[in-house]
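Issue: ligand-bound run for zinc ion - logging full I/O for the record.

Environment: standard queue, default settings, no custom constraints.

Inputs:
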Amino acid sequence: MRLNVIGSSPAWPNPGSAHSGYMLEADGSRVLLDCGPGVLGRLRETAMWPEVDAIAITHFHLDHWGDLVPWVWGTFYLASNGPVAKPALWVQPGGGAFLTALGERLGFPDMFERTFHLSEYEPDVPFQIGKLAVTATRVPHYKLETYAFRVQSNGAVLAYSGDSAPSRELVEAARDADLFVCEATLLRGELDGEPRGHLSLDEAVEAFEASGAKRLLVTHRPRELPTPDEYELAYDGLELEV
Ligand SMILES: [Zn+2]
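Outputs:
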């Protein structure tokens, strides 16, 4: 399984960087975890239009899904010249109705359904994208319904925190993973809101150590915050074998 970090920014962009977007590829199957602003443009640096089997969204904060909107407009434009591939789009329970309501405001009620094969995942029930099995686990993130992803292929496991407060659920989602891609948005946990929504770097390391995962990749980290060299920090364009 290969990871390509497309975008690694927190809720505001690091200089020159896209928001959340992580491409995973195994045996010719490709899934994009989250699709924040800037991700589509980055994907178009290597292909006129992205070739993905599926996109899976952790939650509906804009920095994790915003580029689904221009994905629609680009697909509509390209469709005037011939058929365009329709990727699967996996969203949380109730996500289909959420996207229809958004479509009513942003363009057409069915704009997302016309662009993607829409499906809603069930918590803790794996769904299959070619050779990749994805499991979504609910994690605490302020008061917004949010999921972490665990992706398995050919015996390799990648865990992705999405956005999460410190929690047992997050630790279990990353249990014994080969690679744990974990957010570290905060300088200190005490600076978070109530209920908690994000991790400091220390809390990300604590979750990593408690999980037994083999390798930690820190992401969603503001450029404004220090990250000691001993930690592996995600950047747009980073490619890793899992
Ligand atoms: Zn969020």
